[in-house]
Design goal:
alpha/beta, seven-stranded mixed sheet, 22% strand, globular, binds S-adenosylmethionine, SAM-dependent_MTases_sf, transferase, methyltransferase
Amino acid sequence: MSHDSLIELLDLDAEVLHDYVHDLVGWVGREAAERPRVVDLGAGSGTASLALARQLPGATVTAVDQSPEMLAHLRARADAAGLTARIRTVDADLDRPWPDLGPVEVIFAAASMHHLADPAAAVASAFRALRPGGLLVIAELESFPRFLTGTPDEELESRGHAEAAKRRHEAGMHMHEPWGHRMEQVGFTAVTERHFDIDLRPPLSAAAIRYAQVCLGRMRHGLQERLSPRELAALDELVESLPGRSDLSVRTERTVWLGRRAVHPTG
Ligand SMILES: C[S@@+](CC[C@H](N)C(=O)[O-])C[C@H]1O[C@@H](n2cnc3c(N)ncnc32)[C@H](O)[C@@H]1O
């Protein structure tokens, strides 16, 4: 699957799910130290890095990712937004020992922890990287975005999602990890869990319709060997029809865990 379509999808996340990202970063800002040094883990195209730098006064952000293409795109977005001085990038594979990230008050990981090979080790690395009093924020997808309503389209979309979930599971992704429990296990305190239900009703903006096309197009691409030729053809037709439709909505759920490395550890 092309990197370009993932970059486009992540950029569209920033636009279409703007209110969710804004609420989430606002929450982090209320909990974090002043002028925090933030690490955005698995930063991708930079949605969170840019939002964190914009919304948290005086924050500096280190965006870490293993994809040089993502990081180049992120730097270009930071330049365009006038945020170059406050966002730096680090090219690193987080499945290997983490690079020295310097003193860090906030580690933010959106839709990235599930990619890492060993979730418990990743949470422990985050704990060690944080200064006492620092925050770890893990935001994960409870459900991938859905756009269609009514039969047979909604059934076809659900069938695609079910196969895509099996594919992710077989690829070793950790989609529904007990992140809060993992955080408590390594010593994070005051772990709070929040659910965000996103439900954008029709008529959708042009960006949201494009979002539907890119999401479903990417899903279809990964299911070549898993759906029947008839289902694949129906999915192709569906994806093609999206730009002309006025009945699409965006429904997705995110769960976010926020925990603190205590200043004075207990026990
Ligand atoms: C689904 S994207 C999420 C990007 C971004 N956090 C967002 O919410 O828009 C996951 C990102 O994690 C990165 N990633 C996956 N495995 C990684 C690893 N082992 N080390 C560093 N980055 C990784 C990918 O390159 C990708 O940019």
